[in-house]
Amino acid sequence: MKKRVAIFISGGGSNMVRLVEDMQSGDHAGEPVLVLANGADAGGLKKAQEMGVATAVVDHRPFKGNRPAFEAALQAELDKVSPDILCLAGFMRVLTEGFVAPWDGKMLNIHPSLLPKYKGLHTHARALEAGDREHGCTVHLVTPALDDGPILGQANVPVLDGDTAETLATRVLAQEHRLYPAVLRRFAGGDTSLIRL
Ligand code: GRF
After folding, report:
1. If you measure from the C-alpha of residue 135 to the centroid of ligand 1, how many angstroms do you get, rounded to a whole number?
2. 68 phi, psi to nearest 5 deg
3. Cα separation of 87 and 79, whole Å?
4. Domain extent for 100
5. Residue 152's domain is classified under what CATH number?
6. What is the 196 CA–ligand 1 centroid distance (Å)?
7. Is residue 194 part of a domain?
8. Mind listing the pLDDT tens digit for each residue in 1-50?
9. Which of 24, 28, 42, 84 is deepest in the core (most CB within 10 A)?
10. What is the pLDDT, as a whole number, of residue 48?
11. CB 33 near ligand 1, within 6 Å
């Protein structure tokens, strides 16, 4: 039996596309069962549908100020497909402990920095401001603390002279597209050993 994988997105879903492509390329212990976005305008929804993956939308805006109700709606969509693994991929909403706790050890996220450095937003600009010569991305298990769970994989990206946050982000994203599928392929097979690219 394959592991059933749900993926949360907020925008274009470039990481989701790579995860689905890799699962559909054969010899993978996981299969994509749902791509969910927190807005109907997420470009990744159409891409998921074109790849034959079921989609859902739970818009966070009607739940403004009531995060538990939003998260209950998310979980209700997940309950329809009973996933074994939940991948956050460019999902831009913070999830509370109430949602995360039942997914302990089964939820992954990709973050565009070499955690534990630069948790939160604007990671590329912060690395440049700090004068770092190396940056990168991390796939980690999600825990209630933001961007803080056990690390499953990292990819290093050199900072080049003249880099802007945009040029650096582009190179990091290209490594995310290599790292996340590699980590999910192993994780779905029950292997949590660290991957370093
Ligand atoms: C990327 O910067 C990624 O690091 C972060 O969300 C951004 C968009 O990702 N998690 P995607 O293209 O929607 O996968």
Report:
1. 15
2. -60, -35
3. 15
4. 3-189
5. 3.40.50.170
6. 19
7. no
8. 999 999 999 999 999 999 999 999 989 999 999 999 999 999 999 999 99
9. 42
10. 98
11. no
